[in-house]
Amino acid sequence: MAGVEGPRRLADFLRERRDEILEAWEGAVREIGTARDLPRPVLLDHMPQFIEDLAHYVDDLRAGHQTDPPEKNPRIHALERFEAGYDLAAVVAEYAILRRCITELAVGAAAVRSAELPRLHAAIDQAIAASVVRYTEARERTLRALDRISSAALVNQDIESLLPRTLDAFLETTASVDSVALALFEGEALRVRAAVGFPGDGPVGTELPRDGTAARVAADSLPTLVRDARTSCGEMCPPGTRALYAVPLALGDSILGVATMGSRSNHEFSQEDQFLFRTMVHRASALIHQADLRADLAQHAIELRAALRFRDRILGVLSHDLRNLLGVILTTAELLQRRAADEQQQRQLRRIIANAQRIERMVHDLLDYTRTHGGRGIPLTPHEADLEPICKQVIDNMQVLHPGRSIELRVEGDTRGAFDPDRTAQVVSNLVANAIHHSPESSAVRVAVRGEKDELVLEVHNEGAPIPADVMPRLFEAFQPGVRESGPNAGLGLGLYIVQQIVDGQGGSIEVRSKDGDGTTFTVRLPRKAATG
Fold first, then answer.
1. Strand pairing of 406-412 and 444-451?
2. Residue 467: helix, strand or coil by DSSP?
3. Could you write out the three-class secondary structure of 263-314?
4. Rounded-to-integer distance, Cα 168 and Cα 179, Å
């Protein structure tokens, strides 16, 4: 009938309505998680060209030409989606959405020859099949390559041995690749650190020119394919190389260097080879960074150990010299005290002696600390002794230093055994001093000693605030500022550390209970017989 337009050809519909199809497709595809944040050019990728390929395909079939459905762009599209982090279901979903968008618009237009729609479905089915095959092949090949690199990293953790093995993994993965090289930045210089497939030792150690291909790739932070590399690849490929593909070694926003692969037989690398190389280079960047971190940590550990040894040596020398000087001060002060007739002079000399004795205890603690860290341990001389008189003597001395404090002693059973009496007195002294320091002045410090069948038990209790839970695991470590309070009577934070060292050295144990309302109790257990070995 004149004036009535018949159904249009499907090819014409695809070309005329392409932008509308893409807009509908993009809106639906954005609902896929991986696609949600992709820039529009990356999301569209080869889809506009694929719609044009569909138009050509249905045109050729209509004209009676025998032709295959379009596969090239779907195969490339599958690779790029794999690199973008898509799973296979998301890749297939994109084509299903495209099919739906085209058919819905075509049915709505009611102007497409329905006989041509099966050709469209066949072409999209073939695109899905090609995408699945290429995606699966790429994933399996990539996993094998990454497994080789990871295996190399497990065996070769230092960077000098890691780099050549990583390059070997590159060569083993791609048949068309003849050479691989890797250059890393050393300051502003880009230097070749490893090379495989080169005559002799290759360019290892060579600093690359700042205007060369590798330097430009690093500056632009973009992969570059050179199809005729005979005059432009410089030191990064051996003589006779035709194709060169260079990829920056990136870690976040930082460029670590450049990796290149070269071929003497081809002028081109396939999209899949390029993608695989980029993926492997990305993994290599992380491994190189980890190797650098391990090397830095190892160097810092060496420097720290040296610094600690030097510190301990200095502490040992100072402590030894200070002890001699303090001996002179104490002897002189005690002599003057005996001769002083004036009470004010007596008080001043007592203050001098008390402070000198406190410094002397700190010096002894430092000497003990340097012994334990020097590998010698605190010297112990166990022999038959009685813990009761030792505790009484320590408490008497503490009572002189703290005349306003109440220190109680309770004794049960036979308190004799084989232990070092001087060092055990130091244990009692440190625990009582700690209890006094961390409890109210109006409260009593309670010391209990009892003899059991095979061991002696010492308990020191105070009614102070409980020890914080975060401090408890570090309570017996040296120089712990969180364990002690600050103030004029605070020590070096070595008292409890030395207590544990002495107790451990005698084959004993120490534990602490601390609870709000119940106070804090340190319990020391020493074997009644001297520890052997």
1. parallel
2. coil
3. ECCCCCCCHHHHHHHHHHHHHHHHHHHHHHHHHHHHHHHHHHHHHHHHHHHH
4. 9
Q: Indicate left, alpha or beta for 375 from its phi (over 0: left) and psi (-120 to 50: alpha).
A: left
Q: Are the C-beta atoms of 272 and 176 separated by less than 8 Å?
A: no
Which residues have a Cβ under 8 Å from the Cβ of 512 and sit 6 or more positions away? 467, 472, 475, 520, 521, 522, 523
In this structure, what DSSP letter does residue 531 have? Answer: P
Question: Residue 465: its pLDDT value, please?
Answer: 92
Amino acid code (one letter) for 143: L
Cα distance between residue 67 and residue 273, in whole Å: 28
Neighbours of 175 (CB within 10 A): 10
Q: Provide the pLDDT for residue 60.
A: 80
**Of the candidates 165, 184, 188, 191, the residue with the CA atom closest to the CA atom of residue 280:** 165
What pLDDT, on the 0 to 100 scale, is given for residue 249?
87
Q: Contact, 163 vs 288, CB < 8 A?
A: yes
CA 232/CA 358 separation, integer angstroms: 77
At 508 the three-state DSSP class reads: coil
DSSP string, 22-55: HHHHHHHHTTSGGGTTS-HHHHHTTHHHHHHHHH
Distance CA 522, CA 365 (A): 20
Q: Walk me through the domains of the chain, giving residue ranges and CATH numbers.
A: 10-143 (1.10.490), 174-293 (3.30.450.40), 299-373 (1.10.287.130), 383-527 (3.30.565.10)
- Tens-digit pLDDT profile for residues 402-430: 888 999 999 999 999 999 998 999 999 99
Confidence of residue 5 (pLDDT cuts 50, 70, 90): very low
Say if CB 286 and CB 251 are below 8 A apart.
yes
CA distance 378 to 370: 9
For residues 143 and 374, the model is more confident at 143
Please, are residues 17 and 10 in contact by the beta-carbon 8 Å criterion?
no
Rounded to a whole number, what is the distance in angstroms from the first to the last CA of the chain? 115
pLDDT of 320 > 70? The answer is: no
* Residues 316, 320, 321, 326, CA torsion sign: positive
Work out the number of other CB atoms within 10 angstroms of the CB of residue 401.
13
8 A C-beta contact, residue 234 and residue 258: no
How many whole angstroms separate alpha carbon 78 and alpha carbon 503? 69
